[in-house]
Amino acid sequence: MYGHPLPPVYGQPPPILLIIAATTVLLVYILLIPKIPDYKIEDLSVKKFNVGPDKTIETNFILAIRAENPNTKISLNYGNNNEVTLSYEDTVIGKGNIPAFTHGQENVTMINVWLSGKTQLGSNQVESFHKNEQQGKIPLQYEAMVPISVNIFRFHLKKFTIKVTGDVTVDSINPDKKPKILSTTYEFNIHKFFSL
Ligand SMILES: *[C@@H]1O[C@H](CO)[C@@H](O)[C@H](O)[C@H]1NC(C)=O
């Protein structure tokens, strides 16, 4: 017994549909997948840095962050409810906020964050701080948690919280001397992600 040969396949989509599908995928890719913005610590000013006899430190810093939005179609709204901290050996020594603003497409801007703190250091921390000071190499850590919503054209499409962390090593922390930034590192994470 011989089976009948299979009928030829007519089900192929016409090329125009393939082109539309491919174009749509490409557009969605271009429009909806944001490029990761870039943040860099550019400057640290020390306005106040008092170490009391009981190891309580009182601080005032201005941290200057260079923020770049590389997206051509996407602007970013930075929400009010954000927090930036500067720490020494896991102890927060300064805390502040970024003023809410809209970061335009392909925009580079400097964000100045005022940080202040009053905290007590442990004896070990004071000791290692003095050691770091003598070596002219004080490692600090920064962390920024910022709620962001993404705008594409006029639509607020997505909301999430970004977490930017890293180290910033300075040669000194002293209100009478401008610190020199010796090195910085940078790590970007999407902390919470949800669609509107
Ligand atoms: C970038 O954005 C900032 C903050 O919104 C704004 O002040 C600045 O003028 C913008 N720069 C350019 C080149 O558009």
UniProtKB/TrEMBL annotation:
Which keywords annotate this record? Membrane, Transmembrane, Transmembrane helix
Which superkingdom does the taxonomy of this entry point to? Eukaryota
Q: Which SUPFAM superfamilies match?
A: LEA14-like
So where does this one cross the membrane? 15-33
Membrane topology label: Single-pass membrane protein
User: What's the chief localization of this chain?
Assistant: membrane
Q: Biological process (GO) annotations?
A: defense response to other organism
GO CC terms for this protein?
A: plasma membrane
UniProt domain Late embryogenesis abundant protein LEA-2 subgroup: residue ranges: 65-162
Instruction: Tell me one Pfam family matched here.
Output: LEA_2
Give the location in the cell: Membrane
**PANTHER family membership:** LATE EMBRYOGENESIS ABUNDANT (LEA) HYDROXYPROLINE-RICH GLYCOPROTEIN FAMILY, NDR1_HIN1-LIKE PROTEIN 6
Protein name, per record: Late embryogenesis abundant protein LEA-2 subgroup domain-containing protein
Taxonomic lineage of this organism?
A: Eukaryota, Viridiplantae, Streptophyta, Embryophyta, Tracheophyta
